[in-house]
Amino acid sequence: MNAIPHFIENSPCKGSDNVLSLTDVNSLELIVLQINVEGLTKAKCEYLQKLAEEYGASILSLQETHVVPNANISKFIINGFNLACQHQHNKYGLSIYIKSNILQFCAAPPIIIGDTVTIAVNINGFNIYNTYIPPNVKWEENSLVEIAKPALITGDFNSHNTTWGYDSSNEDG
User: Which Pfam families does the protein's record reference (predicted)?
Assistant: First the structure.
């Protein structure tokens, strides 16, 4: 069973007053930075803020944050951004930060299928997904078919291919 449609059918966004009322997704310019941070620290948060400013980013999609469950997230503040959603895990972890001038968005609870985790936000009818697939876990072939569209899918899929500079390719690469 594919749990990605869970975000579509059971999302707090569906019919919610928390979603922007504009209907034209093209009227909202979103610049997304996707980064595997390999452990989120205060210093990395400061660097991410500078990087986001340099590129004019409105969304930060972070993988491998390594933020332990029930951590004090106040030390993971990125100035100018709100933490929209996250999945805390000491070995991986995901976060989506949204620029603080985007006042209305809707976040879905994490979608967990086995060891694969996806978090998602909806901004003005546009869905941004952030997925982590651990090494040696096969990507479910049809898992992207039923996502809410329009969408941007970001994440760490642990896919390797020699074309991308890896020493070897794996099945998902």
Answer: Exo_endo_phos
Beta-bridged to residue 34, according to DSSP, are 61
Read off the tokens for 35. 């980064």
Domains present along the chain, CATH in parentheses: 5-164 (3.60.10.10)
**CA-to-CA dists, residue 120 to 41, 53, 115, 163, angstroms:** 22, 23, 17, 29
pLDDT in tens, the chain (173 residues): 344 444 444 444 544 433 333 334 456 688 999 999 999 999 999 999 999 999 999 999 999 999 998 888 888 999 999 999 999 998 899 999 999 999 889 998 888 888 889 999 999 888 999 999 888 887 766 555 467 888 899 999 888 888 888 888 887 76
Instruction: Assign 59 to helix, strand or coil.
Output: strand
